[in-house]
Amino acid sequence: MEKTAILILIPFIAALTQLFVPRKYGKRFAVGASLLTFIVALVTFCGFPSSGDYQYVTNVTWIQSLGINFHVGMDGISMLLVLLTTFLVPLIVLSVVQSETRTPVFYSLILFMEFALIGVFTSLDGFLFYVFWELALIPIYFICLLWGGERRASVTLKFFIYTLAGSLFMLVGLVFLYLHTPGSHTFDIDALYKAGRALDLRSQVYLFIFFFLAFGIKMPVFPLHTWQPDTYTEAPTQGTMLLSGIMLKMGIYGVIRWILPVLPLGIAQCGSYVMWLAIIGVIYASIIAITRSDIKRLIAYSSIAHVGIIAAGIFFVSSENGLNINGVQGAMLQMLAHGVNVVGLFFIVDIIQRRTNTRKIASLGGLRLKAPFFATAFIILTLGAVALPLTDGFVGEFLLINSIYMFNPIMAVLGGLTIILGAVYMLRMYQRVVLGEPSVETENFFDLTLNEKAVLIPLLIMVILIGVCPNIFLKVSEPAVRKLLTGF
Amino acid sequence: MKDIIQQVAVLLPLFPLAGFIIIGLLNKRLSRTLAGLIACGALLASFIVAFIIFENVSPQGTEVHVMDWINAGNFTASFSFLLDPLSSIFLLIITGVGFLIHVYSVGYMHDDDNQNIFFAYLNLFIFFMLMLVMGNSYLLMFVGWEGVGLCSYLLIGFWFKNKSYNDAAKKAFIMNRIGDLGFLIGMILIFKTFGSTDYKTVFSQANGFFSGQGVITSITLLLFIGAMGKSAQIPLYTWLPDAMAGPTPVSALIHAATMVTAGIYMVARSGVLYALAPISMTVVAITGAITLVFAATIALTQNDIKKVLAYSTVSQLGYMFLGLGVGAFSASVFHVMTHAFFKALLFLAAGSVIHGLHGEQDIRKMGGLKSKLPITYIVFFIGTLAIAGIPPFAGFFSKDDILAHAYASSPVYYVIGLLGAIMTSFYMFRLLFLTFFGEFRGGDKIHPHESPKVMTVPLMVLALLSTIGGFLGVPEVLGGSNRIDKFLEPVFKPAQEKMLGGEGSAPEMALMVVAVIAAVVAIWYAYKKYIQDKEVPAPEGQRIPALQKVLYNKYYVDEIYSAVITKPLDKISGFLESIVETRFIDSIVNKTGTLVNWVGGLLRYLQSGNVDFYIFVMVVGVVLMIFFKMM
Lengths: 488, 631
Hints:
Oligomer: heterodimer
Structural class of chain B: mainly alpha
Strand content of chain A: under 5%
Order of helices and strands of chain B: HHHEEHHHHHHHHHHHHHHHHHHHHHH
Largest sheet of chain A: 2 strands, antiparallel
Helix content of chain B: over 70%
Helix content of chain A: over 70%
Distance between the termini of chain B: 93 Å
Mean pLDDT of chain B: 88
Shape of chain A: globular
């Protein structure tokens, strides 16, 4: 069997098996299974050929009459996202604090989620992509609904309907493309690409809007974002990590895979509007983040800002400076960086909440004094989030702002405000939470446990590794990005 | 010759980086002495390497490739170093002065619980500072640039329990970030224009541009925004006085001798570009001129020993930018060097005073320390003479070099510079007299004591450098050969050649005499006021004349910034969240949901289960279809 299929199967089988594992061993099993997936992904990544073509392809007929195949494989773009997913999931599982409520179903849902996510990132068939896309929604829905905070029911329902509505538009778009494939029609990715490009401007614009609704809600891009802060805040920590660390990348991946190569005329026509929305969102979300009193909400808004820069950097194919390879490559790297940072930061929030029973910035303080290791981990993740050079946030953000500048300098300057505003809200929060004298709530704060270190240290290593050696990752996705933008 | 540089260059930043990692990871597991030894040892090793490089540097510079960094699309950047006369001088200053300050810190931080972390941060700072000046591209300069900003943040807020210190740290970082955005955009424009951010590519292609071309002007102005932030020029200077919250060695190293001169390095390094942008040169000169007077006036009335020195630093940086703006690149770099000597000296001596008074920084509570801290007194006196521009101390030569060039460019610049020099002499001697002369005003409880050798020896070395450092640049009118100018000539020659119009000449000898006389008069005035009349600044809360009050409150700039930027930003944030987000955007989303529900409710009537209705609809449908078919 090819590696791609193996990568999809391991978490799937594990998710099923998990249900029969005794509760006592639940976490261990889930960690083991997700680690195994990661090792397979890592081995695949290390031996990944420098080519823009799909590798490790499995193509099995699924529904012959409709031209639907179980067609999976990876190019460099998929590879990086699979790597990110498989890297983060074991850490997310590891971050679970075992208790009565964390039943086998909880772990099973996380593993099922991993299965669906890998499926999304490796599908080479439009219908299969849609199926995985929707499959990914189910586990996260239950994770949020069953283990979330007080307002979980209404918030989760809104999130579910909002994203589902978006993906229905995508389904319509995919079917439209399907109907424009020659002969007896097929959902094969290359055929859909070809069909899309042959469309006239009008159809491309409609399709662009349809796809954008699906992907824009998922990321989310301003003003489609209002489900996000509530959902991130109400979801249990692992749910927030899955949503922010991996699931929002589905939206960005969707743009790269299903808009950029398919709708060149549509992008030329509408791309700049989306870019403006994204830039507005960067400033808008950053400013809102400044005065948030709940740390989790603050990070949720900061995530909108970070994603805004990524969105703005990928919604054009070429500028006077040539093809937008820099921008898409920047987006690839920034997806990794954002995944690492945001998962780390949400874990930090989780630690604070568990120790102090509060996430209110005003009630905290003095953690540096009580827990130096914790404070160090926190500052490193913060620096990554504010894109300090030699941390993971910098290279991607630089490449993105750079390419936005090539498209429109004013957008770049406005988007660049994120480096100032980001410092404002992150450092303000860090100061009030970590520095100063301890408060009543933080009086008994203790430093990181072994388990917590096991989650944070790999993330911290990645913060530095991506910042210092971005080429390890960039070189894997570059041929694929180049091929995607130049067409075939 | 080149081979040696190729072999050793990479070690230079590696020593302090290793120091940071070792001390940072082991932290409390290292003994305090060992941590200090590692940190100082790393700096000494770097200094030796810097010296080897300085001795062997070739006029055209040597490039050393370490490793690739970013390859994405048509953007490439690597970790590579450029070692030429300009960077080698900065390397010597950074590692040399840095080493002395590290040694001093062993004494100064002796009683601090977190001494080890302090040294780790200092080492990290040196690493980034070296990256800043060694990098062969704007991108690497930016790496160092932001990195030193981080260390500055960490060290200003080193005593993290104190809220106002943390505020100062945060302010420094954010204000620098404003400048950094300018730098970032400027760098992107450089990449767009030249296809690379490597100095070599950029400067060689710059030949193809004509003087005053818009894009070059934009680039240089954008870069200068970055310089204004890092080097604390108007309007981005207010962080530097606040930065004095950090331990005094930090003030000496980062906020006087090295980091704040990064802006000067950047403009000097980009000399070729600035030479092609006369408008930018004028902006640089005017910003420098205004800042140097503005900051000097504030320094006249401050009562915190470190605040006086801080505003003095802002003012001296203004001199350097004035020099750059009138095309006197090497004079400015010369002043960077002498300033590093005497300002590090003054800060460390001030630190020795503070140390001896157990943390007291208010000069109104000092006085008469001459006899109690004799060594500190002598070295502080030397530093004061140097900054006041009294020959033959170091500041005299570098300042007069700048003033002479300023005169040649426009007498107005000279007059401003002279005005600044007069004020400098006054406030520095005011500081000296109030601190060391007269009676001790600190009460009976405090018993001032001289600092230990580990602190005084670095002071003596710096005092020596402040005394003789100026001889590197003795001008020709005084029979010297201005060696530093000759040394830097290969770096700045292309820029000098591009500048429009030959420089006017200046009556150098006369200017020097005027400057010295002016300084001496100012000193005499300070002597009369604070020694003969025994005046002491009014205590807090007492009414003082309006003008003095405005100066004492630093022209209320902080208050203005807070009212115009900080507070409105908070208000907007609240408004966006509570009104736009909740009442507008989210409400539309929810209304859409309600609408769908409502439509769904309507559609429900269609599925009523009433067969008659179904048939009716079907018939209507068929009729319509036939109707359309016939059309």
